[in-house]
Amino acid sequence: MDRNQMNRQLANMRKALFDQGYLDEQFVQLEELQDDANPNFVEEVVTLFYRDSARLIQTMDQTLERNPLDFAKLDNNMHQFTGSCSSIGAKKVKHECSQFREYCRQRNGEGCRRTFQQMKKEYAILKKKLEVYFQYVRQVALLK
C-alpha cells in the first residue's frame, strides 16, 4: 500500500470514529494542539486517560458491590470520570456516564449497575479502536 492509500485509510478510520459516535469535537481540539514539537500529543493524552481512569473504574466497581450503595460517592467518582471522558472527546462513554449519574440522583441501584456495565463496554470498545487507530498513525508517520 502506498502512502496516499495509507493516508486515505487513516482518514477513513478517523471519520468512522466520529460517524459511529465514539468521538466528538473535543478530540479535534486535542489534535489541533499537536505539532511537530510533540507529534504524539493526542496519543499520549489518550494513554494517560486510560491509565488514570482505570483507578476510578475500579473504585466504582468496588463501591457498586457494597450495600447499601453510596450514591454520593458513586456520583462524585462518575463526575470525575465524566470530566476525563470529556477531555478526550469520548462521546459514547460520556453519554453512559451521564445516564449513570441520573440513576444516582434517582437512587436507582439497578440502573447504576446496568449502566456501569454498558459504560465499561463502551470504554473498552473505544480503547481498542483508538489503539488500532494510533498504531496506524504511527505506521503512516514512518512513511514520511
UniProtKB/TrEMBL annotation:
GO BP: cytokinin-activated signaling pathway; phosphorelay signal transduction system
Q: Where in the cell is it found?
A: Cytoplasm, Cytosol; Nucleus
**Domain note for this entry?**
Histidine-containing phosphotransfer domain (HPt) contains an active histidine that mediates the phosphotransfer.
Q: Its biological function? A: Functions as a two-component phosphorelay mediators between cytokinin sensor histidine kinases and response regulators (B-type ARRs). Plays an important role in propagating cytokinin signal transduction.
Q: Which InterPro entries match?
A: AHP1-5/YPD1, HPT_dom_sf, Sig_transdc_His_kin_Hpt_dom
Listed GO MF terms: histidine phosphotransfer kinase activity; protein histidine kinase binding
**What protein is this chain from?**
Histidine-containing phosphotransfer protein
State the taxonomy lineage.
Answer: Eukaryota, Viridiplantae, Streptophyta, Embryophyta, Tracheophyta
Keywords from UniProt, A to Z, are: Cytokinin signaling pathway, Phosphoprotein, Two-component regulatory system
What are the Phosphohistidine sites (modified residues) in this protein? H79
Q: Which PANTHER family match?
A: HISTIDINE-CONTAINING PHOSPHOTRANSFER PROTEIN 4 (PTHR28242:SF43), PHOSPHORELAY INTERMEDIATE PROTEIN YPD1 (PTHR28242)
Q: Which GO terms describe its cellular component?
A: cytosol; nucleus
Look up and give the organism this protein is from: Lithospermum erythrorhizon (Purple gromwell)
Pfam families documented for this protein: Hpt
Boundaries of each HPt domain copy? 38-133
Please tell me where this protein is predominantly located: cytoplasm
